[in-house]
């Protein structure tokens, strides 16, 4: 007779930063129907202590080898590696969980690749409260989506948009607007900062019609997103204040959202749209 571990879906994680480690620890502690099988890391030596400390240390594999050893692959690596990871996963007909949602805009053909091979791309709710409500509103008519994202200056340090324009935000004393325009135009300039906005765009009226403001604000300590959706069914007004993780660009709730998604995929009761 096969044991419960044999019945579990095998999970692989690309990236062992703050988010990847938290997801790995949750899997190691136990998520019904799920088992951590493999990881890919940029610096195996740096990740070694954490991985060997797990009750069931996973295999360490190359990025493009994860698809061969897992049913579900979670992307928590830098956005530049999305395609290298995604192609073999989708070609193998596996499930891919994407956190670098902005990078998906630059690789939209991956959606067609998933369709061609019977694979599925999952975008977790992440830091965005009300994503289910936006998805429901989109079944009717959404008139407009506007969003304001504010983070402490350190959260924007090194963003390509700022580097290209020679903008320094670390020493500012008052809030500074960095960008105003469509979510699509901002995606390449802030690849590590806009996953919330892109998720809202894909759920609602699309990245070209979603209007976005980005602010660096030295007066706040949390990553803050204010979102207003006007639709024929409801007016949605939301404010989210996320506590940053060890990575100041990302909130703690991002990893928790992936863990919740895995529980939903492996469980027998699915709550939410």
Using brief descriptors, characterize the structure shown.
273 residues; alpha/beta; Rossmann fold; Dihydrodipicolinate Reductase, domain 2; 2 domains; 6-stranded parallel beta sheet; 5-stranded mixed beta sheet; 11 strands; 33% helix; 25% strand; globular; disordered N terminus
Low-confidence stretches: 1-5
Name the CATH class of the largest domain: Alpha Beta
C-alpha Rg, in Å?
19 Å
Number of helices: 11
How much helicity do the residues have?
Answer: 25-40%
Query: CATH topology of the largest domain, anyone?
Result: Rossmann fold
**CATH-defined architecture of the largest domain:** 3-Layer(aba) Sandwich
Roughly how many Å apart are the termini? 36 Å
Helices and strands, with pairings:
Elements: H1 4-7, E1 9-14, H2 18-29, E2 34-40, H3 44-52, E3 59-60, E4 72-75, H4 82-91, E5 95-98, H5 101-105, H6 109-117, E6 120-122, H7 131-137, E7 142-151, H8 160-165, E8 176-182, H9 183-187, H10 195-203, E9 210-216, E10 223-231, E11 235-242, H11 253-266
Parallel strand pairs: 1-2, 1-4, 2-3, 4-5, 5-6, 7-9
Antiparallel strand pairs: 7-10, 8-9, 10-11
Helix pairs in contact: 2-11, 4-6
């Amino acid at each position: 007779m096969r044991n419960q571990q044999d019945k579990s879906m095998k999970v692989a994680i690309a990236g062992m930063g703050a988010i990847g480690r938290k997801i790995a620890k949750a899997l190691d502690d136990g998520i019904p129907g799920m088992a951590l099988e493999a990881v890919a890391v940029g610096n195996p030596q740096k990740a070694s202590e954490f991985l060997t400390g797990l009750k069931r240390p996973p295999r360490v594999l190359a990025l493009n080898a994860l698809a061969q050893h897992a049913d579900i692959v979670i992307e928590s690596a830098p956005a530049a590696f999305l395609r290298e990871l995604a192609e073999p996963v989708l070609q193998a007909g596996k499930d891919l969980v994407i956190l670098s949602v902005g990078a998906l805009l630059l690789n939209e053909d991956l959606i067609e690749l998933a369709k061609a091979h019977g694979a599925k791309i999952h975008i977790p709710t992440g830091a965005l409260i009300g994503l289910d409500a936006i998805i429901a509103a989109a079944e009717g008519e959404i008139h407009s989506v506007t969003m304001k994202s504010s983070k402490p200056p350190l959260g924007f340090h090194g963003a390509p948009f700022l580097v290209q324009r020679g903008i320094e935000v670390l020493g500012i004393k008052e809030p500074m607007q960095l960008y105003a325009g469509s979510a699509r135009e901002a995606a390449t300039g802030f690849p590590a900062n806009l996953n919330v906005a892109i998720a809202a765009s894909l759920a609602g009226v699309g990245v070209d019609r979603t209007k976005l403001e980005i602010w660096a604000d030295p007066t706040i300590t949390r990553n803050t997103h204010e979102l207003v959706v006007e639709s024929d069914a409801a007016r949605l007004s939301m404010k989210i204040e996320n506590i940053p993780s060890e990575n100041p660009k990302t909130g703690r709730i991002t990893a928790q959202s992936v863990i919740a998604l895995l529980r939903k995929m492996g469980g027998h009761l699915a709550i939410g749209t």
